[in-house]
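Below is a filled-in request sheet from our internal design queue. Each sheet records the structural input a requester submitted and the sequence that came back. We keep these sheets so that new team members can see what a complete request looks like end to end.

REQUESTER: design group, bay 2
PRIORITY: normal
MODE: inverse folding
CHAIN LENGTH: 276
BACKBONE (tokenized):
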């Protein structure tokens, strides 16, 4: 069948030129939206980015609304999603989730605030004043690598009820907490010294070896015992030599523990199978 001819197309020698012009026009329309000058291309791109950002904001609002859902599973998933978004707008809603009636929601709120990171630090420090959420705030601060969290956590070592939570948080922070924990070994409060020894033993940083050796002379028997256990945990030979005098410690519990530590230290490591 003969192809239908465009009635507006020129006839004769100009037909090829007309077809080429039409092809260029169609190509231009495919590259740019109709009616948009080439000079406005950057503006179109900016509008596209703005629309995408608006979509993210809308999604945050959706997840925030879901925090009020009566089903704890829905609330839990919303908290997880907000944490993954990591936006500063998520901080306040996640902080409120620390008060949720279900512990499983509160637990993931701690993780989520840790994911948001530094933007959540100031809010969490303020929440330390609130006894009801202090435990969860401490846990969240321990997941944020920001120097601002160190001093507030160190202060919680003086709180008998929350000292273990603070110790766990400082251990999770690891090496950044070591200098302050070493300084705390000289604190006038016995409880603070004990918690610092415990934390350093769990962090296992070589900087703590000499300060922990000095703690073997502490007047409190439990502190001496904990320092010996911390040195065992670090595993440096200097610690093994330093705890030997405690075999003559005036406290029987210390002597017995040190005997076990030294006996364990003498045991050769279990050899691995050749094909391991």
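RETURNED SEQUENCE:
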């Amino acid at each position: 069948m003969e192809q239908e001819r465009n009635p507006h197309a020129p006839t004769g020698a100009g037909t090829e030129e007309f077809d080429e012009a039409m092809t260029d026009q169609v190509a231009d329309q495919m590259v740019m939206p109709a009616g948009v000058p080439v000079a406005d291309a950057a503006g179109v791109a900016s509008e596209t980015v703005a629309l995408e950002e608006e979509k993210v904001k809308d999604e945050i609002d959706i997840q925030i609304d879901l925090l009020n859902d009566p089903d704890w599973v829905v609330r839990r998933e919303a908290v997880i999603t907000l944490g993954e978004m990591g936006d500063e707008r998520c901080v306040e809603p996640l902080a409120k989730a620390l008060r949720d009636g279900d512990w499983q929601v509160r637990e993931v709120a701690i993780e989520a605030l840790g994911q948001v990171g530094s933007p959540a630090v100031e809010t969490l420090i303020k929440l330390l004043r609130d006894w009801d959420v202090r435990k969860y705030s401490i846990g969240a601060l321990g997941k944020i690598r920001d120097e601002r969290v160190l001093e507030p956590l160190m202060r919680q070592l003086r709180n008998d009820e929350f000292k273990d939570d603070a110790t766990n948080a400082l251990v999770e922070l690891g090496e950044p907490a070591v200098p302050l924990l070493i300084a705390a070994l000289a604190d006038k409060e016995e409880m603070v010294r004990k918690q610092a020894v415990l934390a350093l033993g769990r962090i296992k940083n070589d900087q703590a070896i000499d300060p922990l050796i000095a703690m073997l002379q502490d007047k409190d028997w439990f502190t001496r015992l904990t320092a010996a256990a911390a040195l065992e945990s670090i595993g440096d030979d200097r610690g093994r030599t330093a705890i030997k005098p405690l075999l003559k410690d005036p406290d029987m519990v210390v002597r017995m523990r040190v005997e076990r530590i030294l006996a364990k230290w003498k045991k050769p490591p279990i050899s691995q199978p050749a094909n391991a």
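SHEET NOTES:
- The CA atoms of residues 29 and 35 lie 9 Å apart.
- Confidence is low (pLDDT under 50) at residues 6-13.
FILED BY: M.R.
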